[in-house]
Amino acid sequence: MINGYIDHTILKPTTTLEDIKKLCMECVEYDFAAACVPPPYVKVAKQFLGATNTKVATVIGFPFGYSAIEAKVAETVLAIVDGADELDVVINISAIKNNDWEYLEKEIANLMYIVREKKKVIKVIIESGILLEEEIIKCCQLYSKYGVDFVKTSTGYAEKGATVEAVKLMRANLPENIQIKASGGIRTFAFATELIAAGATRIGASASVQIVKEGGEDTAHSDY
Question: Which residues does UniProt mark as catalytic (predicted)?
Fold first, then answer.
């Protein structure tokens, strides 16, 4: 069932409390893997979801990734205090383009220390649509070394989102224990299933309900 792959997502800057409530209720109804919400809404999303199976995910350094390491550390700590289960962290894309892998290593080392201590899930967003193939491969090598939980394709804010080719390249260059989250421009059941076939184990989407309905999967819980 595709619903179990989906992080039901709302990250637009105009997001309201009512939007978060609706998203969380849909997560409960369709049993999505996670609700991915802006950092200020983590605490309330946790309340709305209660004891359901759906995890609360939020974003760090979003959407451009160039905030200081100290800022990302502070965001991560606050998100965990507020109740986040999963952290989708935008890495410093500028550092990749400057070929500054030492900076990126320092960044992930600082974040992994906190995430592992608190036993949370970390997904690193590499923005694959604006990277060269060799940059994607280098990212896979670096984040494999630090044992992240997921490498994620995109924020949805770059000019190019998830592609089947990027997911295949990532899968070929990551160990089996590191999963892939595809996100950015996934609006149909057909595209979502293509990405899963290529190796994605999580799909980030705002069109999640539409994707499930297109697949003809009656996953809604009748008791909600």
Answer: 88, 152, 181
